[in-house]
Task: structure prediction
Amino acid sequence: MPQVYVARQPIFDAARRVRFYELLYRHGAGETAGFDDEDEATAELLAATMVEIGVERIARHKKLFVTLSRNYLLGHWPVPVDAALLGICIPAALARDPEVVDAAARWRRQGVVLTLDVALYTPGLDPMLALVQYVKLDASLLGAQQLGAQVAALRRFDVRLVATRVETQRRYEFYRQLRFDLFQGYFFARPQLLKGRQLPTNQANLLRVLGEVQDPAVSIEQLESLIQRDVTLSVKLLRYINSAFFGMPRKFESIREAIVYLGLKQLRVWVSLVLMSGAAGQPPELSRLSLMRAKSCELLAMASRDAAEPAACFMAGLFSTLDGLFQSSLEQILAGLPLSEELTAALLRHEGPIGEILAFVLAHEREPGAGADGLNLPAEEINRCYATALAWADDTMGALS
Result:
């Protein structure tokens, strides 16, 4: 069973009490981050924190600070932890970006605590400094006179100062004399590596659940039975709905409660996520493509108002990449799913109203605008549907990962 890792380093006050924890991405059991894609690293860090290891275990009733990639800061992908638990650390490299400054203002209005991580103060940081509540300053890089000037400049803002890389008693006492508020460094504690296990899932059972969710006649009892057959699927559902993303006042302890609360629509999205993220070794772009096709088909069906049922079109788009996800023929995969003849014909032969919409979506991927005449929709409406589907797919991948 693969493991996931998160490093946690405490931030102390002058009395050496832990006030916050900073979360650090770790690709493996080593002390370095080792990532190439900032968005992917952020997604893995949030997923490990929220589901695989657990917010409660990591936070210990303290606020967590995490550095987000630019896309997460801008809200292109949702952050599935609420403001009561999460503080956001903004790196200096992004602090002068006008879009990031605007995003920081939105985070601040939502009640999120913001920290700016800097090496040196410059006037270009002023717009961001007007928004953040904390400033992390790498005090080890500066001499006494320079550091004093930096502290004086930053004290003009309503912020609390955090001295980082505090590695000796002497430096700690010096920073205290300069009236730093908080302290972080090896003198107090090295980052602690926390690990959890990435739960495997039964792919065959996931396909059955996903198929059953689409049945309008399916009962809660049937769904409950299907999910309970797979222990790890049950655990993932309860972890998901009990995560800070939902901010529930109480814990759900039964599969039935989780299903009733989510409803069939959200359950469909959740199962879709687990299905695709559980396809080991498959690139995330294939999962994103599945979701984008699904939403495109659904929106186009709604816009065209023809005989195609939007929910069935959603499933057609979602299932259209199953052969790529599971490295098997679509005919073989669909043979084990309780799908209608109409949906099966649409997937295998692009027949019927559902098949026509799916065929258009596939053609549009190869050549934008191809086959649009068959939909009787203006180009503006088609483009709107695609733009909405793309944003929805990105949001869903971010939230569910």
About this structure: DSSP finds 19 helices and nine strands in the chain. The two ends are 18 Å apart (CA to CA). The first strand starts at residue 3 and ends at 13. The beta strands are 3-13, 18-26, 63-67, 86-91, 113-118, 134-138, 160-164, 182-183, 192-197.
